[in-house]
């Protein structure tokens, strides 16, 4: 029986980041829905798991963890022998390799995530939930993201994956927003040769395909 | 082995790296842990020169270099130093993986974005000849209240963010709170008793005092 429970919907980018990691690591889990339309994420019971009232929340037996990138690191630390063994530092696994993963995971969180999340909201969630799109916000964030992707393109011309020769958490972290953005505007990624090559490769991984299947599954 | 930290003492991200180096160097168990702060002249585009972009392709400070390699992103730097020098001075990683990873990430994702926008306006812009935008300050001060309330409740039940010991999770918050403490918006922390007590405790650490005296704030 799975000792791991993930709270949230696979359609949430942050939740899907955790699911991708669990599939990569072959760690069994249960997905518990959180009815955000009914405000379940602000209920006292949920706030005990995630005091900011956001998804995902995560429980492994009695241990709770939140923040999707923290959950991913926790999973890698807790289950080192399972599934993909190179997510936190490649075959090398030493401190410098781990630090390279940390470095590019921080780059994702600090440089890629803000403009890409803003664009995901504008291009995907706003229309879905009936909010008005903001053309200025779209333009500004596309420009910011373009600068970040230029840096990525240079890096990925020198290195197979962001942190080195192996697929790691640093690449995985990009899958949720990347997937949505590529579906709305393929050009952003695919017009850059190395980013395009990298994107095709990481999005073809079986673990990510399982997440996308969950996202596309009919409700109920 | 020469340690170089490329950055500026008015940059909160550089200060984060300085803080961890001072935490590790204080008791002199590791001779040679002194580091050189190499100023990067942003005004003249020092951060966009090819030699700098080779170190950090994002063209941002800080960058850390030691005998084994170079690291960018301040939180990757602090993690590296805390891990590499785990046996020297205070062990900054002494907490459960769940709590440590969670609160390290909370700092980067929840706390820092609004807090940086406040302290950049109030504390950093004046030092680099730019003018403060008070409407950004007021806007972000309103938004950060709910985040700080979560911290307040958490610190009512925990001595430090990741448990009973001071860790990297606490340290990573220090530059921004310090800069805030020199501004008119420190009541954001000061008005919350557990946050205030936690700040008074961690900022009284000798390693922090050594960092603070070298700063221009």
Name some characteristics of this structure:
heterodimer, A: 220 residues, alpha+beta, 4 strands, 58% helix, B: 217 residues
Structure overview:
The complex is a heterodimer of chains A (220) and B (217). In chain A, 58% of the residues lie in helices and 7% in strands. By secondary structure, chain A is α+β, with helices and mostly antiparallel strands. In chain A, a hairpin with a 2-residue loop joins strand 3 and strand 4. Chain B is of the alpha+beta class and 217 residues long. Chain B has helices at residues 12-25, 50-55, 74-84, 97-124, 134-157, 168-171, 174-181, 187-190, 193-203, 206-213; strands at 3-7, 35-39, 63-66, 69-72. A four-stranded mixed sheet of chain B has the order 2-1-3-4, with helices on one face. The A-B interface holds A 51-52, 60, 63-67, 69-71, 73-74, 77-78, 95-96, 98-99, 102-103, 105-107, 109-111, 114, 148, 151, 154-155 and B 57-58, 68-69, 71-73, 75-76, 79-80, 83-84, 96-98, 101-102, 104-106, 108-110, 113, 147, 150, 153-154.
Helix content class of chain A: 55-70%
Please give the number of β-strands of chain A.
4
Strand content of chain B: 5-15%
- Shape category of chain A: globular
The secondary-structure element order of chain B is EHEHEEHHHHHHHH
Strand order of the largest sheet of chain B: 2-1-3-4
Organism (chain B): Rhynchospora pubera
InterPro entries (chain B): Glutathione-S-Trfase_C-like, Glutathione-S-Trfase_C_sf, Glutathione_S-Trfase, Glutathione_S-Trfase_N, GST_C, GST_Phi_C, Thioredoxin-like_sf
Domain GST N-terminal (chain B): 1-89
GO biological process, one term (chain B): response to herbicide
What is this structure, in a nutshell?
Chain B: It catalyses: RX + glutathione = an S-substituted glutathione + a halide anion + H(+). With 220 residues, chain A is α+β, with helices and mostly antiparallel strands. Chain A is built from 10 helices and 4 strands.
């Amino acid at each position: 029986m799975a000792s791991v429970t993930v709270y949230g919907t696979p359609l949430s980018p942050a939740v899907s980041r955790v699911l991708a990691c669990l599939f990569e690591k072959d760690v069994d889990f249960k997905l518990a829905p959180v009815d955000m339309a009914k405000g379940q994420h602000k209920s006292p019971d949920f706030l005990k798991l995630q005091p900011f009232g956001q998804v995902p929340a995560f429980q492994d037996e009695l241990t709770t963890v939140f923040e999707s990138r923290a959950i991913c690191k926790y999973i890698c630390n807790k289950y080192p022998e399972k599934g993909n063994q190179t997510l936190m530092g490649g075959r090398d696994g030493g401190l410098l390799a781990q630090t390279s993963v940390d470095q590019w995971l921080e780059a994702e969180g600090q440089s890629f995530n803000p403009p890409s999340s803003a664009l995901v909201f504008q291009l995907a969630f706003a229309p879905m939930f009936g909010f008005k799109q903001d053309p200025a916000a779209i333009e500004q964030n596309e420009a910011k993201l373009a600068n970040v992707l230029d840096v990525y393109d240079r890096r990925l011309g020198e290195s197979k994956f962001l942190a080195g020769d192996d697929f790691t958490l640093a690449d995985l972290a990009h899958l949720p927003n990347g997937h949505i953005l590529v579906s709305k505007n393929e050009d952003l990624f695919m017009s850059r040769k190395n980013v395009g090559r990298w994107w095709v490769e990481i999005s073809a991984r079986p673990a990510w395909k399982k997440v996308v299947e969950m996202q596309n599954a009919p409700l109920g | 082995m020469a340690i170089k930290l490329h950055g500026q003492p008015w940059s909160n991200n550089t200060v984060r790296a300085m803080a961890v180096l001072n935490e590790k160097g204080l008791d002199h168990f590791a001779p040679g842990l002194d580091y050189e702060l190499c100023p990067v002249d942003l005004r003249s585009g020092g951060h966009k020169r090819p030699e700098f972009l080779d170190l950090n392709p994002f063209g941002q400070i800080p960058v850390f270099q030691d005998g084994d390699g170079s690291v960018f992103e301040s939180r990757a730097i602090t993690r590296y130093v805390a891990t590499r020098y785990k046996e020297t001075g205070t062990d900054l990683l002494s907490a459960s993986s769940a709590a440590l990873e969670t609160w390290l990430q909370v700092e980067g994702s929840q706390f820092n974005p609004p807090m940086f926008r406040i302290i950049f306006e109030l504390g950093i812009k004046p030092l680099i000849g730019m003018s403060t935008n008070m409407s950004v300050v007021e806007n972000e001060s309103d938004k950060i209240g709910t985040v700080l309330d979560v911290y307040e409740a958490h610190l009512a039940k925990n001595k430090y963010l990741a448990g009973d010991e001071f860790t990297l999770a606490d340290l990573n918050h220090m530059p921004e709170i310090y800069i805030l403490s020199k501004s008119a918006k420190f009541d954001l922390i000061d008005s919350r008793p557990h946050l205030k007590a936690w700040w008074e405790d961690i900022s009284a650490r000798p390693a922090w005092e050594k960092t603070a005296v070298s700063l221009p704030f």
